[in-house]
Design goal:
It is built from four helices and no strands. The chain is mainly alpha-helical. The longest helix is centred in the first third of the chain and has 34 residues. The radius of gyration is 19 Å and the shape is elongated.
């Protein structure tokens, strides 16, 4: 019985390692994709998702109309979508193992 429990414990460690490696891969791909953005796009992404600011707050902070902020975010999403599309397929594939 103890051998079986040890086996289950080692399986969990292996799964943890795979999960950590998958997260590492995903984070690296996200950083790589973000590096493809312009400085202004990086700024609005950072303010929106890492500082949790509203569109109005971002607009006031960087002194741009709210619509410009929306456009910057929209263009940023498009760039990120292109660069991250293959990453999610890889992570999905790895999650089955």
């Amino acid at each position: 019985m103890n051998d079986f429990l040890d086996y289950l414990g080692s399986l969990s460690i292996e799964q943890t390692i795979v999960q950590e490696e998958s997260e590492e891969l995903r984070n690296g791909k996200i950083r790589e994709a973000i590096s493809k953005l312009s400085n202004r796009q990086k700024e609005v992404i950072h303010l929106r998702y890492f500082q949790n600011l509203s569109l109005d707050e971002i607009s006031n902070l960087i002194v741009l109309p709210k619509q410009v902020v929306k456009n910057l975010l929209s263009k940023s999403y498009a760039v990120l979508r292109v660069y991250l599309k293959s990453t999610y397929l890889i992570i999905l594939f790895l999650s089955f193992f």
